[in-house]
Automatic annotation (TrEMBL):
High-level lineage: Bacteria, Bacillati, Actinomycetota, Actinomycetes, Micrococcales
Record keywords, A-Z: Cell membrane, Membrane, Transmembrane, Transmembrane helix
Chain segments annotated as transmembrane: 20-43, 55-74, 94-116, 128-150, 220-246
Keyword Nucleotide-binding carried by entry: no
PANTHER family in alphabetical order: SLL0384 PROTEIN
Location(s) in or outside the cell: Membrane
Protein name: Energy-coupling factor transporter transmembrane protein EcfT
Organism name: Microbacterium aurantiacum
Length: 250
């Protein structure tokens, strides 16, 4: 996957996600998740790296289901009823469908973009999707600055500790550091915009690129795989009679 154009990964994720967003049922989400897990060995990630990158998704998806189970639409037999909490057959089914849908949408997104280089993505967006170069370059520059946030946060924490103001008041300290980080980000963004403008990044007219972004058979194959997973999910839901178009009546 490291050699596949990031634009193809983005397109495959969109093709796969749209059908899952349009319905909320157990069969479509479960079928998509099953096929995705079968395809994971060909994603280019070792199992150790796969679990390190996706453990947060596995941990948070059930929490979404718990919320739906407690406060979702009530139907069928009610098992627990307390104040605003109602656990019923309908809420449990929605909870399971929501959990599976979150996993089916989030897992391929995390795995496909695990090896994406921001510069390659910017090249593809500009050269293949023909997005405005000014917008793409600005987004790329901002994305490159994200890695500095952690260093800035650590520097702020060490500076406050050296001044003796970081020993207590954890919430107050967090809000103060967050505001200081916001000020630093605004100043750095202004300086970066001025530097890029001075170097001609905002100049009108066609722009040349140092690296050619190529879109070939591998990219089309990845998009076809994403479309295939979506077709399997929709077909399974239609065959089981569980397709639930969320924009439909009722």
């Amino acid at each position: 996957m490291a050699g596949v154009n990031p634009v193809a990964k983005l397109a495959a994720t969109m093709v796969l996600t749209v059908p899952l967003v349009l319905t909320l049922d157990v069969v479509s989400a479960g079928a998509a998740l099953l096929v995705e897990l079968l395809l994971m060995p060909w994603a280019g990630l070792r199992w150790g790296e796969f679990w390190r990158r996706t453990w947060l998704v596995w941990a948070l998806a059930p929490l979404t289901g718990v919320t739906i189970a407690l406060y979702g639409r009530t139907s069928g037999q009610v098992y627990v009823e307390w104040l605003a909490v109602r656990v019923s057959d309908g809420s449990l089914e929605l909870a399971l469908a929501t959990t599976l849908r979150v996993l089916a949408i989030a897992l391929p997104s995390v795995v496909l973009f695990a090896s994406v280089d921001p510069t390659d993505l910017a090249d593809g967006l500009s050269q293949i999707w023909r997005l405005p170069a000014r917008f793409v370059l600005g987004a790329l520059a901002g994305l490159r600055m994200v890695g500095l946030f952690l260093d800035d946060w650590r520097a702020l924490e060490l500076a406050r500790r050296a001044r003796g103001v970081a020993d207590r008041g954890r919430l107050r300290r967090f809000l103060g550091m967050a505001f200081a980080l916001l000020v630093l980000s605004i100043r750095r963004g202004a300086k970066l915009a001025t530097a890029m403008e001075a170097r001609g990044f905002g100049a009108p007219g066609p722009r040349t690129w140092a690296r050619i972004s190529r879109f070939g058979a591998r990219e089309w194959a990845l998009i076809a795989v994403g479309a295939g997973v979506a077709v399997v999910a929709v077909a399974a839901a239609l065959a089981a009679g569980t397709w639930n178009f969320i924009l439909g009546p009722g």
